[in-house]
Structures are given as structure tokens and as C-alpha cells.
Amino acid sequence: MRVTVTGASGFVGQALCKQILASTDWALTMVDLDLTWAKSLDYNQLKLVEGALQSEEVRQAAVGASVDILFHLAALPGGAAEQNPGLSRQVNLDATLDLIDLAASKGNKPRVVFTSTIAVLGAPLPSPVNDQCRLAPAMIYGTHKAMVEMALADLHRRGQVDAVCIRLPGIVARPAVASGLKSAFMSNVFHDLKAGQAFTSPVGPDATLWLMSVSQCVANLVHAATVESGRLPSNRAVTLPALRLTMTDLIEEVLLQTGAKSDLITYEKQPDLQEHFGTHPPLITAAADHVGFKHDGDVQALVRSALSSI
Amino acid sequence: MRVTVTGASGFVGQALCKQILASTDWALTMVDLDLTWAKSLDYNQLKLVEGALQSEEVRQAAVGASVDILFHLAALPGGAAEQNPGLSRQVNLDATLDLIDLAASKGNKPRVVFTSTIAVLGAPLPSPVNDQCRLAPAMIYGTHKAMVEMALADLHRRGQVDAVCIRLPGIVARPAVASGLKSAFMSNVFHDLKAGQAFTSPVGPDATLWLMSVSQCVANLVHAATVESGRLPSNRAVTLPALRLTMTDLIEEVLLQTGAKSDLITYEKQPDLQEHFGTHPPLITAAADHVGFKHDGDVQALVRSALSSI
């Protein structure tokens, strides 16, 4: 099985690649701007492709003779995309479509696993979110993700690829570096409290968040690579299940598991972050549940998993 | 007012340009692959740009220093797009986005009138069609139109353009030439019966169609250029009102107005055409009605208008 992962140096990408290397015999091609972290890995059938997907040469190297499974995770994140719409078009739309078209052109109908986002459904999200919700993105990141979802549904219909788009909720805990993600606070709560440092929440105590640990996210990505194609809806996209927690629920469990003191916490609500990331409605994911995608189970398991990843 | 019309040699494009020249003092730029029909026109402030919009040079000439209104009608039609998906991406997606981005880059927030299609809502269409329907295109033509709708909604949100997307029903009567349109039969019924020739309907007598005459379509396009921006929904797209007729209703009125005999008519249902063009459900266009878009009024007016255009 020839498998390519783009965005392989990203937070989710690294975790996915490590899982693939540890648990499969797949021939893995990793693609990212900088793959320094992977250069000391010692595996047969591991290929590293450094460069930007806007380059035809990089795309050719990413696909090679053909791929059986293409995990396309590379993207300019939401905050950075909003700052640089032109680059978002290049990376999140044009190069993405070019890469997928190239993989499709080999004629072997590859499985394409595309990481989409709940942002395709809008901000604030409709309530409840279910499989009948319209695509109604409110920012350029979600707009380009939605456009690629539609292109993949069409390529799938025409028999060129076997497409599976999964819409990710907030994944925790991301590294505590500036990542261009507006949702960084969801991860910083883990880092700051684990380090015994003050944490200021930019959303209120009753803000509701959809969260998934990175290890659960990787399990869902691997599942997306092998899920039975015919059981997915014709738009080829599912909103993943996620735990729905209030900011208070999350903080209390992180305090409990880290032993940090509650006086480290303050709240300074930022209206735009509250609107985009703190008003997640009830979530009904029948299509994803039906084919076996899962959330972390409960808040204890989520926090344990997230803390173990940092 | 500097106005550009792409697809200016098309069926709707020619009618729109003639209306603009006859009734406004706008400085008009026409863009199409071949503008022979327009070369004998004698108007001040008329500029002709011949070439493909995939060319940067053509796009620069189309936009010039800036445009106040961009009517973007140019497209590879549905049947041709399905035959040549790569060209559909070039014309209906990439060049379209490049042109709109270029017009937006001039900084004057141009009104962009984009002719979308009811095909963005799927085939068969959901019943009834209303403003809550999801984007669910079933062919590549509708897929690319839906992707551009989403890109325009995002550009509008960011204040780069003032976007108005109108989803057209079947427009009649198109010229009786091979146009790559799968819906050609809707127009051929007018041509064949006006000429006293046999007409074979590829959809059944009870097939339901949404139709609009070309003159009504032009009136709606001109309305889209000047409609008050704030009264449109945030996705900037409206499904236009249309008359909903059965094939029998349409044929009987065409027979009446042309004096043709009913024994010219036979029915040979083609399942794919029946599915895509002969199952149009009840249509509720509140958002479009609210801002003043209109259909032809009744079947007599529609048929009279369509017959007068051929």
C-alpha cells in the first residue's frame, strides 16, 4: 500500500505518520515544507518530500507513480488564511485541487482522505448541527475547505477518486507555539495549567466547545483510509463526532488532572473568538457514527489523552 | 459607469449587451472568444476583447483600469463540461476566480453579477426548492458554479466585491445550434414547431420544467446590477423565480401560438434528461422575490416572448 501524507510535519500530520509507521507496513511518503523531525527515522519504504505543494515538482514527487491512499492534511490555517487570502487560494484551493487531480490522473482511483473542518458549516454554527446542515462558511479557511469538499464529491461521482472528507472539531492539545490558529486557546489551557502558569480564557465559562484528542483524531484518520466506501453519503463528507464541553467543564478536569490551582484561571471574553469557537451547539453525527467514527468517550479520557500528548 | 460582460457572444450575453447599448449610457466592454457579431455595432465607449479568459492578457483587457459592474456569464456549458472536466476547471473555476480577483484588486469594490444555475441544488432537485436548500450539485458544471458562489460570498464578506449570484432556470428559446447544453430540448420545441417540423420530447408529458424567457432573464440581470446590496442574503445567491410548467402545458401553448399541428409531437423519454431537467419541483423564491426579481408572469407571455426571440 503506497500512502502519502501532506502536512506531515503538522501537529496532526506527525501523529498520523508515527501511527502509520508504528502499526502498518504501508510505504509512506511524507510531504511538508520542512521534514527535519523525520530525517532520523529509520524505516524501509519511507520517502521524504520537502517543499511547497504549489510546486508542480513537489506534487509529482508526492504522488510518484501512483498512491493508494492520499491523506491531504496540508493547509494554511484559519487565522493565517484570513490574513493572506491570496496565499489561502494558492495553498488551500489551487494546489490542493492540483494535487488531487494529479493523484486521480494515475487511473487507480485512490482513496483521498481530506481533513475538512466544522467551519464549513458557518460561524456561529446552526443549532443543532446534523447531517442536513448547509455549507455556509463564514471565513476564507472554511470557504476553501468547502470548495474542495465539493470538488472531491464531483471527482468521486465521476469515478476518479474514492473520496472521504472528515470535518474536524478542535483537536487538542496542539503545541504551544504561534500557529496562526485562532483556536489556540483550546490547547493553551492544557499547556499553561500543566506548567502551573496563569491561563486567561478568551471565551466565557459557559462557552461550549467541540473537542477531540489528537490520538482519537489519528484513529479517525486511519479509519477514514479504510472505511467501506459505499456506506458514506454521496457528498462524501461527514462531520466527526466530538465531545461537547463547556469551558468550565474542561478547565475543572484539567485542574484536577494537573493539580493546578483554580486561582490561575481568569476569563476575558473576546467577542469574535466567543462567536467562532465558543458557541458550539448540540452535535448529531449520524452519518459518521454509522460508519464507525468516534469521539474520546468522556471528558476524563479526553483530558488524559490531551495531556499525555504534550 | 464602466461595465464588462463576459460571454458576450452567448445567447444571454448578446441579449444583455444589446439591452445595455439600447437603454443605458454605460461604457461597455464585451469579452468572448469571437465577437464578430458586434464588430459592426456603432457606439461610443464600446470596447471589444476577443480571447479566452484563461489568458492573463485577456483578463487584464476585460477589467482595464477598473470596472464598476462585471457581468460574468462566460462558461463552458454543462454537457461540454461533463465531457471535459479539465477544461471546466480551467474556465468555470480557475479563470473565473482569476477574473474576479483581478476586478476586486482594483480597490473599488465592483458589483459582480454571476450567473449561477439551479444545478447547484442537485439533480433531482429537492422538493420544494426554497432558500434553505443545500448546495448539492450532481454534475461538474453545477459543482464549479457552486464553488464560485462560495468564493464570491467570501470576497463579499471581506469587502472586496459587491457580489450578486443569480441561479438561472432554463432560458428559452436558445438558438437551435449544438451548444453543449443538455437542456437544448427546452428550446428546440420552439424552433421545431415554429418551423412546422416534428418534435420528439426526451422528457415525458408530465415532466415539470422551470422556464424563463431570454428577455425576462436580461431584465433580471440588469436588475441584479443595481439591486440594493443590503437586501440580499449573506451567501449573496438567490434562486430566480421561474414559471413551473409541464411539458404538455408548454407544448400546447407553443402549438397554439405557432399554429403547428399536434401530430408533430412524440415523446421518447430519456431517463437522464428526465431526471436532470424534467423533475423540477415546486419553487419558492422568497429571497429573490423580496428584492424584485421576476418570472414571465404566465405561460402565454413566456411562449410569446420566447417565440419572438427566434
UniProtKB/TrEMBL annotation, chains A, B:
Keyword Chaperone found: no
UniProt entry keywords in alphabetical sequence: Carbohydrate metabolism, NADP
Gene3D superfamilies reported for this sequence: NAD(P)-binding Rossmann-like Domain (3.40.50.720), UDP-galactose 4-epimerase, domain 1 (3.90.25.10)
SUPFAM superfamilies given in the database record: NAD(P)-binding Rossmann-fold domains
Residue ranges of domain NAD-dependent epimerase/dehydratase in the record: 3-197
PANTHER family: ADP-L-GLYCERO-D-MANNO-HEPTOSE-6-EPIMERASE, NUCLEOSIDE-DIPHOSPHATE-SUGAR EPIMERASE
Protein's name according to its UniProt entry: NAD-dependent epimerase/dehydratase family protein
Organism in which the protein naturally occurs: Halioxenophilus aromaticivorans
Taxonomic classification: Bacteria, Pseudomonadati, Pseudomonadota, Gammaproteobacteria, Alteromonadales
